[in-house]
Amino acid sequence: MVVRKVGKYEIGRTVGEGTFAKVKFAQNTETGESVAMKVLDRSTILKHKMVEQIKREISIMKLVRHPHVVRLHEVLASRTKIYIILEYITGGELFDKIAHHGRLSELEARRYFQQLIDGVEFCHSKGVYHRDLKPENLLLDSQGNLKISDFGLSAQPPEGVSLLRTTCGTPNYVAPEVLSHKGYNGALADIWSCGVLLYVLMAGYLPFDELDLTTLYSKIEHADFSFPSWFSMGAKSLIKRILDPNPQSRIRMEDIKDDEWFKKGYTPVNFIEYEDVNLDDINAVFDETENQQDYQQHINDDVGPLILNAFDLIILSQGLNLESLFDKGKFQQDSVKHQTRFVSQKPVKVVVSSMEVVAQSMGFKTHIRNYKMRIEGLSANKTGNITVILEVFEVAPPLLLVDIQKAAGDLNEYLNFYKSFCENLEDIIWRPPGDSGISRVGKNKSRKRP
To answer: Is 231 exposed, middle or buried (0-12, 13-18, 19+ CB in 10 A)?
Structure first.
């Protein structure tokens, strides 16, 4: 049998597979330690404009070295692959435990919640906000201890930036201020998600869970939920203070840790904090990746958004829309499907997640397949339905183009939708210097080229 090795790691079976990576079991031949090896294809990373996103995620994971955060050991590379060496977690997701066994006892729920707060508080002390805390992103080790994972949507804003603006996360766990699209404090948004998690651990179901998205977001906005009969008074009191829809009066981390219910049986985790976080291996691997110029020759087109060529851009261009050459009258009257579009420099994962959450917060249902999204629901004036199709294209690194078309419904209602939709996505939309921004959305579709 041929034994595959990468550096000092002997590679074993595949233990997981996602859209962009495979996770393999591996063993450090020097120490005998078991690890998880996340294997990414260089060309795929470049095709999806994921270099900066993955660099940021890895740097953050190296920074937040804590017993209740999945440990990142190192990053290695070959000519075609990048290998991220992670702590091997054997206990599965906390989500699976709840799904298979139902609600947890108050004692067990409190222990997981204490570990969650320890880990999240440490992340916040490093200026890192997770933004996607949910049971699927909480793992359990062989001792049953909680480990926070998946920092793909996390943020580490620069010094002096107090509010985050990207709308992302999983709707049932997202704080109301995130859905309001007016900027939010990352720490307080994470605290809200921790409160939802505590409720789920103790109840076995979500506090906010409606099929109708308008109703769901209304309930989140007003913190409209009720407690099961088995919740203790202490647990109810703490959850109410966490699930406060007003972030200004919402309980802070230090007050959670000072709460009487929280402190029962609580022993702060002991660990050695490493001051020197070395990012040399990350920079070396990704600097080499960014310098590859011929990667498109090796890309399988079905793994990501379509790449637009020059002719595609001409067809999509507002000023050179060829449709007007064939049916000028009809085009001027309604633009047939009435295309609209914007450009983004954000990673494709952030763009798709942001559009999904914004559309849902506006009361629309979303259906996603690959890099196409269908949005449908009642128009703003509630007089009829509109259906909108969005597709993400790659233009040139690092630009993505989001093409939006009206598939059904009233044109004016569509334009109103588009204006509101883009206003709520202002933080991911790229505009050239001097562009006055969203105030022209909807109007610029009929404006003539200068």
So the answer is: middle
Structure tokens at 84: 């991220």
Mean pLDDT of 30-48: 88
In a domain, 43, yes or no: yes
The torsion angles phi and psi of 192, rounded to 5 degrees, stand at: -55, -50
**pLDDT tens digit sequence for 338-374:** 557 888 888 877 888 888 888 888 888 888 876 788 8
Query: Active-site residues: which are they?
Result: 132
Q: Do 102 and 67 fall into the same domain?
A: no
Q: Map 191-224 to HEC letters.
A: HHHHHHHHHHHHHCCCCCCCCCHHHHHHHHHCCC
Both 117 and 241 in a single domain? yes
Domain with 51 in it: 5-88
Q: Write down which residue in 39, 67, 88 finishes a domain.
A: 88
At residue 320, the pLDDT reads 39
Same-domain pairing of 258 and 312: no
Nearest to 75 by CA among 40, 33, 46, 34: 40
The answer to whether position 270 is within a domain reads no
Alpha-carbon dihedral sign for residues 246, 218, 425, 416: negative
Same domain (yes/no): 57, 151: no
Reported as a single tens digit per residue, the pLDDT across 62-98 is 899 999 999 999 898 888 889 999 999 998 889 988 9
